[in-house]
Amino acid sequence: MWYIIIFGLLTLSVAFDASRRKLGAAKTILWAIGTFLLGVIVVPIYLAKRPLKVNEVREGGLAWNLLKNFALTWTILMVAISISAISAAAGTDTSSGAEAAGAAIGIGIVIVDTCRCLVCPDGRGDCIRLLPQELSHCRAWTYRTFGARS
Which of 64, 24, 29 is CA-nearest to residue 47? Predict the structure, then answer.
């Protein structure tokens, strides 16, 4: 169900954008069908190859834009899967303690992984594995704010 909702919205967005950029009816329909069927692959390609509007600039090359847009599309998909997994796990009937513990562990893993990907300040989703030297900007902020060096 979530796939139809997410990629249905992405399909509408791509179709409207393609028509506003005057791609023609045939190309607009093909991009829309491709987005609905293979959204994670087609949306990054569309965003990297679509014609630019007046005064619009695309930074980086084709490979950079493909990877950047793939990461964005993949993140949206993973959030949807995580929400779906949390709701499915929350609705399970746990009659034994082991089932309840397994459901709690599963929900915890999904929540931690989602937060790690979305909330981390470094933007890479690797805040749990950061080395101390990579946090120098955080230490500098702490020194300025609290006046203590540790």
Answer: 64
